[in-house]
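Comment thread on ticket #2218

A.B. wrote:
> Attaching the input chain for the structure job we discussed in standup.
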Amino acid sequence: EAQLVESGGGLVQAGGSLRLSCAASGFTFDDYMIGWFRQAPGKEREGISCISIIDGGTYYADSVEGRFTIASDNAKNTVYLQMNGLQPEDTGVYFCAGDEYIRGYNLGYQFRTTDLGTWGQGTQVTVSS
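C.D. wrote:
> Ran it. Output below, let me know if you need it in another format.
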C-alpha cells in the first residue's frame, strides 16, 4: 500500500524557518512526483512545490519561490520542504501528495491538476506575526 507520512510542522514566528518531511513507502520512489499542497482557512488548496524523483526536476508556486526549497533523499525515500522566511500567510495545513510522474509533461501542471493517488495526513504550520 502506497503511503506518505508527513512530519515537521509547528508554530514559528514570522521570518522563521521550518522543515517538513514526507516519508514514502509502498511504491517505487523513483517513478513518482512528490510534493506539497497547503490548505489555509477559507482559501482553496494550493499546490506549492513538487519534485520529480527520477530527474530532480522541481516546481514552485510564485507564492513560495525563493523562500522554499524542495529536495529528495532517495536513500531514505523521503522528500523535504525547507521553508525559510515564513510569513503569517503561509499558515495552513500542509499535505504531502504524489503519484507516478509522466516524463515529457510539465511537472508543475501535472502535479497541480492530476487526481493524485497518494496523500499524507497533513501537518499544521502556524506562523505568528
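A.B. wrote:
> Thanks. Noting for the ticket: The first strand starts at residue 3 and ends at 7.
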